[in-house]
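Title: Prediction job returns without error message
Component: structure pipeline
Severity: low
Priority: P3
Assignee: unassigned

Description:
Job completed but the reporter wants confirmation the result is attached to the right record. Sequence as submitted:
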Amino acid sequence: MIKGGTVLQNGIIFLDSVDSTNEYVKKNMTKLNDGAIVVAGNQTAGRGRFARKWNSDISGNLYCSVVLKDLSWITAVTQLPVFIAVVVRRLALAVLGDYKADIGFKWPNDLYAGGKLAGILIETESGCYIVGIGLNIAGAPYLNEIKASSIASINPALALPTQDSVAEQLSNILDAAIFEYSESGFAPFKSEWEDACIHLNRDVVLNENVGDDMKDGKTVFFMGINNDGSARVKGPDGDKEFAVYYGELKIHD
């Protein structure tokens, strides 16, 4: 057992409160096994991509980090954001059960359902990958003027699950997805992502310099995902197609 944490089954560690589950993993990497999941009741300094604050004090939402030490099963690490986004969407749908919901992807790895439903932050430490996941289950946080949604807002009648049960679902879905990738490769994940992309074959504003300011972004036509996980885009006037590995985009209204 890691000091200060309650260890549940399937290598899941539950913390009442922590600054950031990703930071906790970085500090305790040598003590954590591959596939371990660190879950926090709340985060006092939760963050998303580009160090943006992620409001993490709503009880019942999922704030967690997954430890990935062995990536020998994946062909290209650049496929990881797409792969993980598909896993998190499958998790959200599993929590909703039989309730039909339109949950879509926004590049590179956000989930939307009438607003931002989940965000993913992938970092590296000592050659290992840390996958931070924020999934809005019980409530939608305020996210820097970005409209957010939650599982509860999608289906108000749903009996909301506990954090530990959702973490167990995540562990099982991740294991099944890794097995599926090992058997079938990246193709089914690429297809699933593109089928649910909310801006496929649309003009978007792409900012490869990242950050909050989109004024330096350029309008491009989003064509889908390449086999290495990068985004396929081209200029709106039929310019040559090119790949994008890092950045952010804004969807045209």
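Comment from assignee: result matches the submitted record. Residues 163-184 form the longest helix (22 residues).
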